[in-house]
Amino acid sequence: MVNRNLLREFDVPDVEIDQEIQQSLGAPAEEALPAAYLANDQVFEPGRVVVGTVRAVTDSDVVVDIGYKSEGIIPLEEWKDDAQGKIVPPQVGEQVQVMIEGIEEQGGVISLSYRRARRQQEWERFLRQHRPGDVVSGVVTRKVKGGLLVNVGVPAFLPASQVDIRRPADVGEYIGQEIRCKILKIDEARRNIVVSRRQLLEEEREERKRRLLEELQPGQIRKGVVKSITDFGAFIDLGGMDGLLHITDMSWGRVQDPRDIVREGQEIEVYIIGVDRQKERIAVGLKQKTPSPWENIEEKYPVGSRHVGEVVNIMPYGAFVKLEPGVEGLVHVSEMSWTRRVNHPNEIVSIGDKVEVEVLGINKEKQEISLGIKQCQPNPWDLVPEKYPPGAIVTGTVRSLASYGAFVELEEGVEGLLHINDISWVKKVNHPSEVLQKGDKVTCVVLGVDHERRRISLGMKQLATDPWETDIPNRYQPGTVIVGRVTKLTNFGAFVELEPGLEGLLHITELADHRVENPGEVVRVGDVVEVKVLSVDPTERKIRLSRKRAQWGKGEEEGPAETTGRPRRELKGGTGESSSGQLFSLPQQKRREKSAGSSESGAANQGQSESAG
Fold it and tell me: What percent of the chain is helix, strand and coil (3-state, nearest 5)?
């Protein structure tokens, strides 16, 4: 073809050009042009797709004639096939569709694009065939910012969040894979298509879930794939829904880690335990495919029989012993020793120990067996009533102290309680630590034995006679004046220690002749005072004292002249020296004497009660 623009660049006159054309075509220029050019009814304008003929193919370009003034040159790279990953060049003379990118009118130069024409055709064809919501297939070509490009006939954008139900760590692993996805949006103006593989997977899963829930029934055996493993079990993909395989349903035996039984991606057969269609939950199991070892448990392990098992687990309340795979029993901490006070099972057993146990009880419904270790050993308490009868004098070691007494070990595993009230006859013991310490050797009397409750009562004070029976009443007779030390003050009086462990009550009304509001006004703790014994009550173990009466007696001794000399004449209201005493008393004086007497008696009783308490 003659390029008239090229000829004009060399300043060739139009007349010469016409002559050359006429000679070449054998006809006048005006008659020849329509055959080559004017017969082409294509519209030449930018953006228009036209048909052209391949005139030449070089190593880098393709020359295409579209019937315009000049031919277009297109880079050979535009014939690259993305699917094959290589350039597939056209053949000379092949008809191809190209897009006019631009026209330079003055020079007649035209710019063409094979790639853009092909995309334009693909886009128009895609719009005719698909709408949003359609399912399409394509190959993932490359990774772009925020997602992937998928060739579904035209490039489509697949966001990373829509690649899978769970967003993958690296979306690049999908490059080169053919996937199915759903069209979310088509933007014709921008020629942009957004697709989602996740939405399609979710819809397909929901459909499979619906069908699966309709088909599943408890008792069925189904194939599945281990999808994920947790500390409490594994989730099994049953084809549309996941079923929970709990760790307790993996084996009849004890399972420490689910990974010891299954692994991710493993295909297994599971037993359908239950189906909750409302909550869409499925429980599956592995052990249910085999018979339960608890079916004939009473025949294999009757109550009272002895067996050897392995300690497989230890808890604060006891140890679990495996009798066979899937059958374990609990040895409670109280069933481990006849003699020792076991605070924790690890004091007796360790995991992996082989122990002999006796079956104490079976609960088949709850699949529980009660076992005992001490039942396989002699019981020392069977001999306690014979070895420690009431009245026997025994020696033991103080092992522990409590607020109410001390525990004394008589032999290994046999302890007796020395109550706080049985430590001393006379001393008021508030806590056993005032008298005893851990490790002390003590001698006691056996007061009683409760074989069923495994208890022995001991006493220390019973080793001696009760001083309140004869000794104290004889030594502290009423009227006796003694010296003591004030040990405690109360609002109703003071306690006076007469000897170690023995106290008496000095009531507030017996402190002084005058009215005393506070005992601290007269005496203080530590003071040594002289008191008179008013009374001794062996039953209540109380001694009443008086300070003022002791002073009265002392005053009489210091004034002998008044008692040994001539009697003093006392005027008795005109009665002279009559020995009959005063003839009458005033009403007020009688009331004061009566009130003082009753007050003294009541206060003394109150003080002695608190002293005994």
Answer: 25, 35, 35
